[in-house]
Amino acid sequence: MKMRNELQQRLAHPKRKFEYDRKKDTLRIEHTETGKGITISLPGIIVKWQEQKEKAIDEVVYFVEEGLQAMETDHELIGKEKHIFPVIRSTSFPVSSNEDIPFIYDDHTAETRIYYALDLGTTYRLIDEKLLEKEQWDRNRMKEMALFNVRSLSTEMKTDRVAGNTFYFLNQNDGYDASRILNESFLKEMKQKIKGTMAVAVPHQDVLIIADIENNTGYDILAQLTMSFFASGRVPITALSFLYEDRELEPIFILGKNKKK
After folding, report:
1. Domain extent listing, the chain
2. What's the pLDDT tens digit per position in 83-138?
3. Residue 200 has pLDDT above 60, yes or no
4. In what order do the strands lie in the sheet with 37-41?
């Protein structure tokens, strides 16, 4: 309640309205004239606030302000070819905008989908069918560009060794950390380094975890890590991890006490 009131106070504007969904614990900030808006998940913000205090709220306010401003601007794709990227989202993420314009997306795993975004520097705009038609762009051409561009992003990682297992974290905070899961050559390169079983996780958009699981404890540690990141993410994706084998991602169900399914 306090967090909701704080955000509503900081984001108040004569042309904005707020809608709170008690069931989902989300707050929607919407422009009263256009109906365009942004929905934010409050539990993740509260977890971040416990760690970062005011910085967490400042970040959300900035993210919403930038996003709402981007929605009020007409965008073009021509000349922006290098600024189109794929973004990973949960399968519960909407498949169309609030104006019922379908987003361009592809199925990825049972837990995730691939959407496509025009990067605007401090924010981005998801590409929908209306924008593609306006620009007279071919859907496949746009997807190829996005996948090419994600391969150009840095894959520098931090490493942590826990209980005989190695965990790699990619966290560049450019909005496309989870998108690196689509860089097939990067995953193949990582696979060569793995001594045990390779697992991958995208708990939220700003992190990619790759795990070298060498014993059963590694699965429990990965599950705990993924859940922790999922709970604190600004844009949560999935708390499940995936086995990476033969270029396929297979969800892992951790049952606890070192058992996996």
Report:
1. 2-71, 81-150, 158-260
2. 999 999 999 888 987 678 899 999 999 999 999 999 988 778 889 998 899 888 89
3. yes
4. 16-21, 26-31, 37-41
- Please state, in angstroms and rounded to a whole number, the distance separating the CA atoms of residues 1 and 240: 29
Residue 256: in which H helix or E strand, if any? strand 254-256
- This prediction has a pTM of 0.76
Q: What are phi and psi of 179, to 5 degrees?
A: -65, -20
130-166 burial, b at 16+ Cβ within 10 Å, e below that, comes to ebbeeeebeeeebbebbbebbeebebebeeeeeeebb
**Within a 10 A sphere around the Cβ of 10, how many other Cβ atoms?**
13
Neighbours of 178 (CB within 10 A): 26
Rounded (10°) CA dihedral 227, 232, 234, 236:
10
Structure tokens at 70: 């981007």
Q: How far apart are the first and last CA of the chain?
A: 39
Non-local CB neighbours of 248 within 8 Å, separated by 6+ positions:
none
Answer yes or no: are the C-beta atoms of 151 and 183 closer than 8 Å. yes
18-55 pLDDT tens trace: 989 888 888 888 888 777 788 888 887 887 788 777 87
Which residues, listed in sequence order, are joined to residue 166 by a DSSP beta bridge? 161, 212
